[in-house]
Amino acid sequence: MTIMSRVAAFFRSRWFGGVPLDRLFWRDLVVVGTAINVASSVVALILLGLKLPLALVLAVHFAPVPYNIFLTFAVWRTAGKSSGAKASLMTLGATLWLILVVVA
């Protein structure tokens, strides 16, 4: 399996609900998504400290936003297939997380 097919399978499994909601929310969104955002912000601050162009700094800082939106919608879609308070809380949590990582 090539790297591109693995990446495609990763996104497809999350988009179409092939990953359990708990794993999608806690591991993919909260842990990995937050780590990517923190790393991106740290690199952007380093670039800012090196006095590189602001456009580059902002591009690096906001680079994870499409992935953040993807993860949030994937949680919404997967939670929509189940019912109950847990699914609703995860949908709310994903929404609040997206707002937090985009604004912060």
Describe this structure as you would to a colleague.
- By secondary structure, this protein is an all-alpha fold.
- The chain has one domain (21-103).
- The protein is 83% helix and 0% strand.
- It is built from five helices and no strands.
- It has helices spanning 3-15, 21-49, 54-62, 65-80, 85-103.
- The longest helix is centred in the middle third of the chain and has 29 residues, at 21-49.
- It is globular and about 50 Å long.
- The model has no long low-confidence stretch (mean pLDDT 96).
Briefly, what is this?
83% of the residues lie in helices and 0% in strands. The chain is an all-alpha fold. The mean pLDDT is 96.
How far is it from the N-terminal to the C-terminal residue, by CA? 37 Å
Instruction: Enumerate how many helices there are, as a single number.
Output: 5
- Tally of domains: 1
Q: Tell me the number of strands.
A: 0
What does the average pLDDT come to? 96
The chain-level structural class is: mainly alpha
The run of helices and strands is HHHHH
Q: Approximately how much beta-strand content do the residues carry? A: under 5%
Biggest β-sheet: count, sense, barrel?
none
Oligomer: single chain
Please specify the SSE layout and strand pairing.
Layout: H1 3-15, H2 21-49, H3 54-62, H4 65-80, H5 85-103
Helix pairs in contact: 2-3, 2-4, 2-5, 4-5
